[in-house]
Hints:
By secondary structure, the protein is α/β, with parallel strands linked by helices. It has one domain (2-58, 93-247). Helices cover 43% and strands 13% of the residues. It has a six-stranded mixed sheet with strand order 5-4-1-2-3-6. A hairpin with a 2-residue loop joins strand 2 (16-23) and strand 3. It starts with a strand and ends with a helix.
Amino acid sequence: MLIAGLDLAAEAKGSALAVLDWSNNRATLVSLSQGVDDMQIINVVPTVSKLGIDCALGWPVEFSEFIRAHSDPNATGSVFDGTIDWRRRLAYRETDREVRRITGRWPLSVSTDRLSMTALRCAGLLSKLIDLGHDIDRTGSGLVVEVYPAASMRLWGFQFAGYRNSTEIRKALVTELLDVATRLDIASFADLMVESCDAFDALIAALATLSVVTGNSTKPPIELLSQAKIEGWIHLPTSNLKRFDTSYD
């Protein structure tokens, strides 16, 4: 079974795609590509069972409703609160609040942060995949699932502060991965992951996606399922990567 992790950026530059082969309870990193454009991603999709994307798959429902209401300057009966609490409701999705509850950290806001430029690219990519007939469900039940490498590493217990700007920290993280995940074979691409934070994040996205495939991830609760179909849902790993050799049997 092939599983992919996509570290998506607003442009091909800064985007990376990792593909894991999961078979016989062993994960082997078989490809790791940088600078991937939409067509390269689309060409890989038919070969994989699941694609984990490190990007918001949708916007908060309340934010979308606000944009629709605010787009008509002559509308009557639309009075917006404007307070900080109201703004926070529009800034964060329900899944962002769940990530905050579990990890203690807020994800970037897809409404108010530069992440929105990447999310717009992601929306375009998802529309192309749907047009090609792929099953896309923003809750993660279809081909695509939303993952969050930094939160995943936090839950796995890694010390990763500053890793995106430090080859030394990434080298230490790669070494730790090789030490603790005895059924993970990434040695062929170790140098690339040390050299490139995008390549490293793509691997972590693929491992987080593996957690989803093997049933070791958070899922949207039933009462939020309809909202998650619009906003997207971040699947966080519920198993400890340091027990990789037993957790995924």
